[in-house]
């Protein structure tokens, strides 16, 4: 077999549009009908014909330019949307009247983020295709950083709620856009570990933010005019520093993102023409959608009726119900175990650190074994076990260990489901729609967490706990159904009785 350094020629097939493919490509026996443009090639042979050193260098360059900046942006995104719980523990609740008996203003502030977040997700993916990731994602980060600083000027609960709603508009761009962007660069068996690494960085930062927020809350800002912040007339309240300083950091990172983010493969200026051609050819051999297609209203209606996408949406709802609940209410849950306010903030970090290697390991082995549903089921099982422990066991140590398992479970499920939803389909338009749909379902999980975990039931939150357990159990059942259904589809496709995702060679990964 000749190792070919990819110099490109133009090839075409009547099934697909023209793409650049490597000159001298010579498939081995076992490829699907040999490689033609529009035909898929098995994973074991998809890199045949490429110089391994050239391939490795190209993929490292893509990884370096794509994953770290997306991880950093999503880290501040997750911190900025969830730091309201830490600000509340640092005194915001008392300052803005959120802790009054029977008050639901805090739950309303939590909820206000999600309606706008859900509504703007699909338009955001369309906008990113039109304007490119640097402008769209970098600009969105810059703008929500400004909103974050404005939250530090909140005079009352109404102002806080309004700022949270605006925050949702700009943050809607990032997560679905990042997952869609990652899936556009890599093969199906390369996506999951990158999504898990990308997400795990944000989980670690989210846990660390509790310690950072505790430190920021000790910083006293300068006095200002009385009318600026209401009756206290003083910006020396520590919780305001959390919003101010984290907001400023977000603005700076948005500027960095504008200059460092990369868009889609066909727009990549940091790759040589040969490298761009190789990326496009590999993607086309993997799923035949290197050339993007436009998302139309007709396609949107068709995709919305796909039960496979609905199954991913339910799973993602279940995962984010758990993750948002713990993000917004974990300090109160820990306080209910008897820990002081300051200690409950600090003890938020270890569960997220515990989750980190589990998230990365599941993503890595999911790609390595090309299996998805067993890892997703395992993640939801961890969530169930952990939730039962921290709710029903008396020992404080066992309850805290339950928190660690629950945090690991839901935060492992989030990237697994997000990645699985992207590798189970083809066509750029459908992946764009799917990322928006799935993350919108995650927004509904955030709304459900705010409604189910109410101040009246603190610190035990019985309604929220029962809903978490029910949805995690349903999601495990869905993974079993997916496994059986996808295997059934693959067997029918092997017999020539079914075409999956409009392509005769496409097969589901289980």
Automatic annotation (TrEMBL):
The keyword Transmembrane helix applies. SUPFAM superfamilies: MFS general substrate transporter. InterPro entries: MFS, MFS_dom, MFS_trans_sf. Residues 1-28 are annotated as: Disordered. GO terms for molecular function: transmembrane transporter activity. Keywords: Membrane, Transmembrane, Transmembrane helix, Transport. GO terms for cellular component: membrane. Residues 1-10 have a biased composition (Polar residues). Coiled coil: none annotated. Pfam families: MFS_1. Residues 66-491 form the Major facilitator superfamily (MFS) profile domain. The chain crosses the membrane at residues 66-86, 106-123, 135-153, 165-186, 198-219, 239-262, 308-330, 342-363, 375-393, 399-421, 433-453, 465-486. It comes from the Eukaryota. It is a multi-pass membrane protein. It is found in: Membrane. The keyword Membrane applies. This is Permease of the major facilitator superfamily.
């Amino acid at each position: 077999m000749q190792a070919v350094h990819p110099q490109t020629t133009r090839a075409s097939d009547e099934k697909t549009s023209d793409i650049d493919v490597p000159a001298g490509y010579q498939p081995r026996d076992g490829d699907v009908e040999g490689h033609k443009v529009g035909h898929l090639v098995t994973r074991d042979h998809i890199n045949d014909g490429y110089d391994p050193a050239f391939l490795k260098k190209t993929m490292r360059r893509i990884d370096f330019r794509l994953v770290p900046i997306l991880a950093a942006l999503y880290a501040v995104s997750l911190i900025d949307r969830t730091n309201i719980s830490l600000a509340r523990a640092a005194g915001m609740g008392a300052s803005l009247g959120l802790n009054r008996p029977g008050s639901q203003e805090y739950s309303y502030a939590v909820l206000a983020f999600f309606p706008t977040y859900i509504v703007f997700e699909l338009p955001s993916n369309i906008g990113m295709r039109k304007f490119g990731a640097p402008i769209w994602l970098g600009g969105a980060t810059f703008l929500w950083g400004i909103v974050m600083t404005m939250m530090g000027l909140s005079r009352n609960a109404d102002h806080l709620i309004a700022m949270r709603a605006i925050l949702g508009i700009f943050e809607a761009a990032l997560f679905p856009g990042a997952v869609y962007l990652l899936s556009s660069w890599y093969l199906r068996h390369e996506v999951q570990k990158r999504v898990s690494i990308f997400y795990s960085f944000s989980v670690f930062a989210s846990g660390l933010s509790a310690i950072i927020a505790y430190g920021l809350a000790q910083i006293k800002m300068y006095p200002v005019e009385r009318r600026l912040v209401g009756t206290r007339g003083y910006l020396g309240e520590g919780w305001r520093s959390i919003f101010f300083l984290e907001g400023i950091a977000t603005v700076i990172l948005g500027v960095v993102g504008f200059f460092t983010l990369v868009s889609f493969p066909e727009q990549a200026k940091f790759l040589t023409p040969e490298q761009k051609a190789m990326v496009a050819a590999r993607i086309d051999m993997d799923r035949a959608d290197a050339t993007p297609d436009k998302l139309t209203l007709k396609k949107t209606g068709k995709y919305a009726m796909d039960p496979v996408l609905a199954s991913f949406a339910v799973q993602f709802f279940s995962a984010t119900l758990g993750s948002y609940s713990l993000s917004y209410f974990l300090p109160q849950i820990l306080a209910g175990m008897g820990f002081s306010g300051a200690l409950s903030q600090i003890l938020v970090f270890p569960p997220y650190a515990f989750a980190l290697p589990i998230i990365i390991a599941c993503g890595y082995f999911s790609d390595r074994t090309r299996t998805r549903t067993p890892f997703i089921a395992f993640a939801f099982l961890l969530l169930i076990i952990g939730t039962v422990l921290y709710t029903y066991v008396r020992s404080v140590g066992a309850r805290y260990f339950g928190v660690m398992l629950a945090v690991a479970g839901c935060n492992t499920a989030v990237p697994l489901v997000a990645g699985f939803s992207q590798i189970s389909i083809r066509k750029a338009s459908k992946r764009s729609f799917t990322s928006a749909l799935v993350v919108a379902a995650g927004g509904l999980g955030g709304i459900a967490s705010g409604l189910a975990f109410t101040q009246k039931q603190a610190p035990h939150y019985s309604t929220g706990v029962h809903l978490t357990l029910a949805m995690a159990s349903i999601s495990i059942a869905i993974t079993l159904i997916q496994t059986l259904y996808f295997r059934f589809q693959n067997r029918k496709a092997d017999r020539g009785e079914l075409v999956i995702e409009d392509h005769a060679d496409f097969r589901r990964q289980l």
